[in-house]
């Protein structure tokens, strides 16, 4: 039972810290990546069709600045807006995350009730 409880706590902690995320198109990188924006990742589509995921993106003047990780190497990049076709931002859905956490908690309670009932039935035999 302790093992099950430990696994349930780990799952709940994992859902609360990572959350349910999705890519959402940015209306424009200059407004979406303002200095006060809380964005962890931006998926940048270049005019030539290539795509890069930029970590910790921010706008400095009119240039998108961030870090790209390739082959375990981190590289700081400065991307001019005239090279960008589109930008998508990774955003956390608080409603989805809360729903998932509630679903996991309810599932755990149902599972615990079923295990407790099974143990009572088998111990009486």
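^ structure tokens above, recovered residues below v
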């Amino acid at each position: 039972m302790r093992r099950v409880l430990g696994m349930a706590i780990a799952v709940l902690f994992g859902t609360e810290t990572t959350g349910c995320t999705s890519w959402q198109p940015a209306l424009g990188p200059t407004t979406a990546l303002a200095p006060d924006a809380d964005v962890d990742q931006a998926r940048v589509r270049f005019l030539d069709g290539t795509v890069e995921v930029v970590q910790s993106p921010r706008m400095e003047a009119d240039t998108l600045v961030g870090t790209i990780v390739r082959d375990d190497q981190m590289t700081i990049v400065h991307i001019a807006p005239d090279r960008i076709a589109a930008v998508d931002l990774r955003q956390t859905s608080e409603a989805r995350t809360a729903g998932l956490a509630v679903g996991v908690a309810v599932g755990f309670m149902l599972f615990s009730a079923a295990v407790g009932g099974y143990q009572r039935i088998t111990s009486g035999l």
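Helices lie at 2-18, 29-32, 94-123.
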